[in-house]
């Protein structure tokens, strides 16, 4: 028993692993391990019985956590959009735009995957939708089966990192950080990841063109009476909207200054991107509406189709992310507006029905319950683990790693990468992050950057052969047997599981490359965050001196020494402040005995003492 008591924390961690290996669900494994070791700890007198009485308060705290309401809101939004046919329309329209170039269909899948990620935030919905819609088309026109599988699975995982990602909500909650800041930090890395995917497809189009053939002319459905495909009109509209967006981004500080009535010198990059993108999109939508109403013939069929299909999701992105980045709404409120916006979009498209709504609500309830059960189990486990000084054990374990911060980051990312073979991102967020976050904070690592880094790493859990969830989702919709293509009448070969695994590996390496890029260039995350407020200490000093001079003239100044004596901490302490002993609460020039001199002693010239202290 003495051995168990002295090694309680590591034995508890090993016990959790044993529960998981036995095949019990993660939520129940966490709860069972926590309760079992909690009872054992009380029996061994490692911690008092009162520790278990805290559990109901912890559970009530979970249910009262408004931040977690964003999870069902964003899930409902994504499911309604996915089931109302938005993914199908996007893939069809974007595929027509990029289809004539080599690798165009793969590029369309990546771009649509990013857009679905920014509107749905649900990996399963994105992978299944694109697998059902784009996989048969890519196979029909001669795409490599492994590439088609890999690009669909990898593009679906963009929902893991591009806001409004569900994992970012959970990570922010577990780290005690703002969800809005987590979204801002993940904005640039998410779209950088999309850029890496595009570079890979472009590289294949250059060096292995047979694996990514272009769409044949007969497959292009939007043709003008003149025989053209309408690319000139689409290009002009795109350039005009881009110019409007760039102008908005350039003048963002002036717009903010006018709106707030005071000079604004800095606007975050992510805010500029969202507002500029949506401003340009709104102008394009307005032109398309005017063209359709007046029948002026300004736009081609392709340009009009792309505009009306792309603009509603982009405006929904602004409704959700724009309001969060601008500080108008909290992530929970943004999620609620997004869900309502999805309902409105589905209604306007004539695709909202009671059946669709019931299915979406049913799936949302299941996912939200799944998250809450894991969180309850993780709370029970972490409460007992902390009572047994488990974080101290982990901290001592990791503190011995060579390399300081870099060694810690390399070890943590390797550990998370291998744990992702067996655990999904929810489980990793609730089990691993609460243990690692305090240690990272003590080592001076920015927790927003650390959270986004872990989110990118946990993204690999969807592409790990053979356990990647995105691979399972794609396997469920990819053809397993030979089938007859409905358009060509040809018999098509199936997609094997090994082809799916082979296609996922290059994109898995790209995700790990993104982890390395973020460690090498932290500004990819921190550059998108609000800059800290700079305080002019000289101006503060002058204002304080002015106020003190006015106080001296208007009242009896003899009462001030007694006031300072009351504010000074007792000898040997710091009154609960963060200042070191001897700093007297951090007041400049103060001593441990009194405000500006020994307790009970009155300074000869209080005003002079204050001026000298401020001058220091």
Description:
With 616 residues, the protein is mostly helical. Helix content is 69%, strand content 1%. The chain is built from 29 helices and 2 strands. It has helices at 2-6, 8-21, 26-43, 50-53, 55-63, 70-83, 86-98, 104-119, 123-140, 145-156, 166-175, 179-207, 231-250, 252-260, 269-294, 301-325, 331-348, 354-387, 390-399, 404-419, 425-431, 433-442, 447-458, 469-477, 497-520, 523-526, 537-554, 559-567, 606-615; strands at 483-484, 491-492. The protein has a two-stranded antiparallel ribbon with strand order 1-2. β1 and β2 (491-492) form a beta hairpin. α8 runs parallel beside α10 (145-156) and α13 (231-250) packs parallel to α16 (301-325).
What is the radius of gyration?
A: 29 Å
- What does the main sheet amount to? 2 strands, antiparallel
Strand order of the largest sheet: 1-2
- Spatial separation of the terminal alpha carbons: 58 Å
* Tally of helical runs: 29
Shape descriptor reads globular
As a percent range, the share of helical residues equals 55-70%
Please give the oligomerization state of what you see: single chain
Structural class: mainly alpha
């Amino acid at each position: 028993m003495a051995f168990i008591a002295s090694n309680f924390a590591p034995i508890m961690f090993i016990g959790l692993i044993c529960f998981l290996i036995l095949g019990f669900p993660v939520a129940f494994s966490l709860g069972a391990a926590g309760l079992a070791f909690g009872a054992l700890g009380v029996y061994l007198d490692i911690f008092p019985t009162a520790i278990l009485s805290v559990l109901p308060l912890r559970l009530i705290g979970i249910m009262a956590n408004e931040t977690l309401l964003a999870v069902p809101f964003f899930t409902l939004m994504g499911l309604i959009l996915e089931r109302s046919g938005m993914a199908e329309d996007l893939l069809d329209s974007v595929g027509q735009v990029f289809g004539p170039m080599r690798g165009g269909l793969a590029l369309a899948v990546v771009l649509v995957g990013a857009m679905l990620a920014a509107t749905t935030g649900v990996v399963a919905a994105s992978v299944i939708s694109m697998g059902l819609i784009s996989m048969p088309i890519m196979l029909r026109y001669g795409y490599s089966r492994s590439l088609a599988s890999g690009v669909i699975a990898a593009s679906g995982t963009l929902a893991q990192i591009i806001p409004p990602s569900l994992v970012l909500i959970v990570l922010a909650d577990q780290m005690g950080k703002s969800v809005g800041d987590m979204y801002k930090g993940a904005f640039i890395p998410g779209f950088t990841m999309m850029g890496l995917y595009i570079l890979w497809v472009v590289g294949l189009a250059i060096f292995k063109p047979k694996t990514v053939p272009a769409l044949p002319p007969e497959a292009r459905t939007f043709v003008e009476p003149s025989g053209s495909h309408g690319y000139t009109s689409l290009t002009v509209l795109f350039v005009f909207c881009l110019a409007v967006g760039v102008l908005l981004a350039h003048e963002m500080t002036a717009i903010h200054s006018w709106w707030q009535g005071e000079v604004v010198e800095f606007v975050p990059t992510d805010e500029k991107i969202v507002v500029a993108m949506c401003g340009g999109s709104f102008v394009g939508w307005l032109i398309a509406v005017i063209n359709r109403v007046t029948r002026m013939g300004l736009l081609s069929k392709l340009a009009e189709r792309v505009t009306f299909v792309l603009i509603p999701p982009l405006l929904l992105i602004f409704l959700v992310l724009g309001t969060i980045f601008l500080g108008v709404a909290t992530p929970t409120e943004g999620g609620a507006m997004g869900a309502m916006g999805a309902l409105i979009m589905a209604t306007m498209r004539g695709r909202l029905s009671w059946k669709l709504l019931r299915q979406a609500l049913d799936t949302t309830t299941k996912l939200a319950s799944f998250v809450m059960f894991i969180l309850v189990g993780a709370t029970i486990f972490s409460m007992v683990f902390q009572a047994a000084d488990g974080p101290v054990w982990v901290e001592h374990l990791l503190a011995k790693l060579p390399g300081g911060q870099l060694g810690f980051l390399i070890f943590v990312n390797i550990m998370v990468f291998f744990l992702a073979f067996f655990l999904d991102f929810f489980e990793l967020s609730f089990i691993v992050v609460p243990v690692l976050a305090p240690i990272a904070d003590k080592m001076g690592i920015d927790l927003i950057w650390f959270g986004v880094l872990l989110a990118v790493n946990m993204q690999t859990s969807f592409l790990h052969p053979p356990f990647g969830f995105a691979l399972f989702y794609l396997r469920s919709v990819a053809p397993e047997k030979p089938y007859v293509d409905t358009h060509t009448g040809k018999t098509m070969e199936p997609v094997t599981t090994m082809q799916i695994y082979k296609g996922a590996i290059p994109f898995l390496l790209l995700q790990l490359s993104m982890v390395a890029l973020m460690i090498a260039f932290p500004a990819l995350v921190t550059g998108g965050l609000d800059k800290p407020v700079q305080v002019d200490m000289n101006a503060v000093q002058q204002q304080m001196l002015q106020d003190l001079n006015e106080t001296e003239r208007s009242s009896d100044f003899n009462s001030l020494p007694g006031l300072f004596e009351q504010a000074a901490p007792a000898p040997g302490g710091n009154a609960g402040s963060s200042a070191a002993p001897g700093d007297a609460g951090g007041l400049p020039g103060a001593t441990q005995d009194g405000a500006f001199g020994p307790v009970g002693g009155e300074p000869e010239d209080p005003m002079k003492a204050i001026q000298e202290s401020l001058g220091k």
